[in-house]
Structure formats: structure tokens, C-alpha cells
Design goal:
By secondary structure, the chain is α/β, with parallel strands linked by helices. It has twelve helices and twelve strands. The protein is elongated, with a radius of gyration of 25 Å.
């Protein structure tokens, strides 16, 4: 029997049981006696039996596989989201296929084709910074495959979404800088193709306006999230005739790059210029000075996204109405803003 793929029939013949009894024993059906189930599981382990997932998917029209699409792995954010989602999906009996787009729209399209060909039951998505057309995701909708967006969500599709309160997080970050006495607060913003970038920019603007601080367009720079560009733009801001006395960055990698540039120029942090990031990457607490940042419940983003997807998959007939889950953020104050 070791010379071919072990099947339920092999186990049934060896134990003199029916095929249906073996199948029920392997799936934990309550109608199978405990001793019988133990015999089946023991032999299955001895013979290295693996369930034929292809055959099961043909019978159930389900592959028990979920696709997770992320734009980058440069920080700890997306790996942590995936871990949270995978914990929930594994408990529900689903396997996960992870696709990394490397912030490329073309790669993202290729990844969607791969997941469609793999017959995934649903997908969790955070799109690339280049993505402005979402037709490749709408194909899943038309095929009845549920889609849930997380972190980088979109208005163009009526599907479930998970985000944090980017606006409020940015507002609190800038208000904190104002309360420490800063007035010329710059913002390194993300691409306007990303909704979270737009929300954080709006929070920045409103915090200044509500505290009667004029908005200076020369202090706002939207960029493509690459660290070499961050380096260039931080130097540009510091070279202004009236340089900023504080910087609110779109994310922690940007803030950390800014901190490196500012220290290399001999400026004192936070006395001459303060810095706030967004995301609370683990390294933010380890650098000197520690980075003040907006913390996000990263694991919970993944967990909530997975639960929303499972709710869609559990519906027998009509899909439930799409849900929007907005999770709170928390400002963590460290040495980059408080001496």
C-alpha cells in the first residue's frame, strides 16, 4: 500500500469497515463509535493518509482556501495582519495562499489571476499604491467569490472592509505636536491613491485649522512611500528658509528615515524638530530617541477581516450586507516629541 497514494478505500479494506464509516471517522462525525474512530485515525497516521482535497472540492464546490493579497513586506505591519487573519481562518478549517504584489499594479493583476485559477473561496485584500482601477477585483464579485478589503480600503466596491480611524489618529498626533508648542508642522503624506493617506492628511489639516494655525502648502509633500524619496524630501524641508519645527509622517518607516536625516544634520530632537510616525513598528521603541507614533491594533485588523469573510462564506443563499469595521488608534508618546 505504500507504493501508491493512500485512500479511504485502503483504510476501509484493512479495517473491514465501510468507506462511509471511515469517512465519517476521519471528519469527526459524532455517529462513529470512539473505538472505531481511534482505529481509523491510528491507521491513517501509520499509512501517512492525506485527504484528497481536490476530490473534496469537486464534491463541495469549495477548496477551503483563502487568498490574502498584500502590497509589501517592508515593515512588520502586513505580516502581523496575516498572522491575525490566519489564526481565525485556520480555526475555521481554511488554508491560506499569500500573494505579495511589491507595490506593483501589474503584479497585483497577475496575483488575482492566480487566485482565480486556484479556485479560492474568498480573498482578503490590501491593494497597491499604484492601483486606481479595481476591475480585477470586481471579477471575484461577479463570480460570487467574497472580497474583504483591509487597511487600504476602497469606495469603488460595495464589499466588507476593515480599517483603523486614520483621521482621528492623525488628528491626535498633530494636536499632540501643537500642545508641545510646535507651530510649523510638516507632513510627509502617502500617495493620494490610498484612502488612508487621504484620511491622515485630512486629520492633519483639521488639527491645524481647529487650533488656528494656517496651513502652509510648502510643508505638505505627498510621495510614493520609498525611503530614498523620504530622504530627499526631509532634506528639502530642512533646507526651507523657514524649516519646520515638527514632522508628522505617513508611517513609521518614513518617520525613522526622517529621524536619521535630522540626526545626521546635527539637529536636536525634539527641541529643534519633533517627529511623529504612524503604525508603532517594533523598532520604533528601540531607536534613540524613541519614536512617538500612532498605534494600530494590527493583529485585530487581520482577525476582523477574516471574520467578515467567514460571515460571507457562511451565507447559504443571499450574502449578508457589506460591513465596515473601523478600529480605534492610540497615540504612544516617546522621546521624539517629549524631551
Amino acid at each position: 500500500m505504500k507504493n501508491h497514494q493512500i485512500t479511504i478505500i485502503d483504510i476501509a479494506n484493512t479495517l473491514n469497515l465501510s468507506k462511509s464509516t471511515v469517512s465519517r471517522a476521519l471528519t469527526g462525525h459524532p455517529n462513529v463509535k470512539l473505538k472505531t474512530r481511534e482505529r481509523v485515525l491510528e491507521l491513517a497516521a501509520e499509512l501517512d493518509y492525506q485527504r484528497n482535497q481536490l476530490a473534496i472540492s469537486l464534491l463541495t464546490n469549495r477548496t477551503q482556501t483563502i487568498g490574502i493579497m498584500v502590497p509589501e513586506f517592508l515593515s512588520s505591519f502586513f505580516p502581523k495582519v496575516i498572522i491575525g487573519a490566519q489564526d481565525v481562518l485556520a480555526q475555521a478549517g481554511y488554508n491560506v495562499v499569500i500573494c505579495h504584489s511589491n507595490e506593483s499594479y501589474e503584479t497585483e493583476i497577475s496575483n488575482t489571476k492566480l487566485l482565480l485559477a486556484s479556485r479560492v473561496d474568498g480573498i482578503l485584500v490590501s491593494h497597491t499604491k499604484e492601483t486606481r482601477n479595481f476591475e480585477h477585483f470586481k471579477i471575484f464579485e461577479r463570480k460570487g467569490i467574497p472580497v474583504v478589503f483591509f487597511n487600504r480600503i476602497v469606495d469603488e466596491m460595495s464589499v466588507s472592509k476593515v480599517a483603523v480611524d486614520d483621521y482621528e489618529g492623525a488628528y491626535q498626533a498633530v494636536e499632540h505636536l501643537i500642545k508641545t508648542g510646535k507651530r510649523r508642522i510638516a507632513h510627509l503624506a502617502g500617495p493620494d491613491s490610498l484612502q488612508n493617506s487621504r484620511s491622515r492628511l485630512n486629520g492633519y489639516r483639521d488639527a491645524l485649522t481647529n487650533h488656528q494655525i494656517p496651513i502652509d502648502p510648502s510643508l505638505i509633500i505627498s510621495y510614493d512611500l520609498t525611503l530614498d524619496k523620504a530622504n530627499i524630501y526631509v532634506n528639502h524641508l530642512l533646507n526651507l528658509p523657514q524649516p519646520p519645527d515638527a514632522l508628522f509622517a505617513i508611517n513609521d518607516p518614513t518617520a525613522i528615515e526622517a529621524l536619521k536625516v535630522i540626526k545626521s544634520r546635527g539637529l536636536r530632537i525634539p527641541e529643534e524638530i519633533a517627529i511623529v510616525g504612524f503604525s508603532d513598528d517594533p523598532i520604533s521603541a528601540l531607536i534613540e530617541p524613541g519614536l512617538t507614533t500612532v498605534s494600530q491594533p494590527v493583529d485585530e485588523i487581520g482577525r476582523q477581516a477574516a471574520r467578515l469573510l467567514l460571515n460571507q462564506l457562511a451565507a447559504e443563499d443571499e450574502r449578508p450586507e457589506p460591513e465596515l469595521v473601523v478600529l480605534p488608534t492610540r497615540l504612544i508618546v516617546r522621546g521624539s516629541t517629549m524631551a
